[in-house]
Design brief:
The protein is an alpha/beta fold and 255 residues long. The protein is 44% helix and 15% strand. It has helices spanning 16-33, 49-55, 82-87, 98-103, 108-120, 133-137, 141-152, 158-161, 182-199, 202-207, 221-225, 242-254; strands spanning 4-9, 38-43, 62-65, 92-95, 124-129, 164-168, 210-213, 232-235. Helix 1 packs parallel to helix 12. It is globular, with a radius of gyration of 17 Å. It binds 1,3-dihydroxyacetonephosphate.
Length: 255
């Protein structure tokens, strides 16, 4: 059975000291909430990973990087490899976020290589897909998401695909306060699951966690998570406040 997941993406926020404080707060709030059925992940900047992994109880909160390098190692100044991420104790890596795709030119071809590096280092992957506003308005959103899945992930055999969590993040909803309606989210999540079933089989699709991301917050999480194919959330802004993040986790546990 697929997991219920709430993952925070801190993006480029919080210096090291602030990040340590936030991680401590999240860890204690989640522990107190007793929401064992929800896999809780925090995606911190690279430099926080090692310290945050020392602070959190791994049975309560797991840690993710927000990216990794294409190459395994070598003369790539400023890059951080998947092996380095794994060596901090982190279990997850977020790949294909729309900010990386649009600001840093990450193509499907680049992402295929990053997914390989992550898998070679036993990292679980949160793989982001999602359309921009113009694509939705012109009715191309299903086509765009299907192509991101096919070109970024469907080269994987089923046993490797089992290490992937898909995050549907409509770009027009990210950081805009304009959330997809629960009907829009469910429609796309069901489509993603159907597409996975078409490529692999129904069992693989049923075992894949599909998260919604894009202005998901303490107020709307409950409604979004009530949908049958919305297995959790990838949370940006609201993951920077421990109180809001834990409210979202409690909402996930409820359904
Ligand atoms: P917001 O929750 O701030 O809209 O960000 C969503 C996101 O991009 C998570 O990866």
């Amino acid at each position: 059975m697929r997991k219920k997941v709430v993952a925070g993406n801190w993006k480029m926020n919080k210096n090291l000291q602030e990040g340590i404080e936030l991680a401590k707060e999240v860890n204690s709030k989640v522990k107190a909430a007793g929401t064992k059925e929800v896999t809780v992940i925090i995606g911190t900047p690279f430099i926080h990973l090692s310290e945050v992994n020392k602070i959190v109880d791994p049975t309560v909160v797991a840690v993710a990087a927000q990216n990794c390098a294409i190459e395994a190692s070598g003369a790539y100044t400023g890059e951080i490899s998947a092996a380095m991420v794994a060596s901090t104790g982190s279990k997850y890596v977020i790949l294909g976020h729309s900010e990386r795709r649009s600001y840093y030119g990450e193509t499907d071809e680049i992402l295929v290589k990053k997914v390989q590096r992550a898998l070679e280092n036993n990292l679980e992957i949160i793989f982001c897909v999602g359309e921009v506003l113009a694509e939705r308005e012109s009715g191309k959103h299903f086509e765009v998401v299907k192509s991101q899945l096919e070109n970024g992930l469907f080269n994987l055999p089923a046993d490797q695909f089992a290490h992937v969590i898909v995050a549907y993040e409509p770009v027009w909803a990210i950081g805009t306060g304009k959330t997809a309606t629960s009907a829009q989210a469910e429609e796309m999540h069901a489509f993603i699951r159907k597409t996975i079933a078409g490529k692999y089989n129904q069992q693989v699709a049923d075992n894949t966690s599909i998260l919604y991301g894009g202005s998901c917050n303490a107020k709307n999480a409950d409604e979004l998570f009530s949908q049958p194919d919305v297995d959790g959330g990838l949370i940006g802004g609201a993951s920077l406040k421990a109180e809001d993040f834990s409210t979202i986790i409690v909402a996930r546990a409820k359904h």
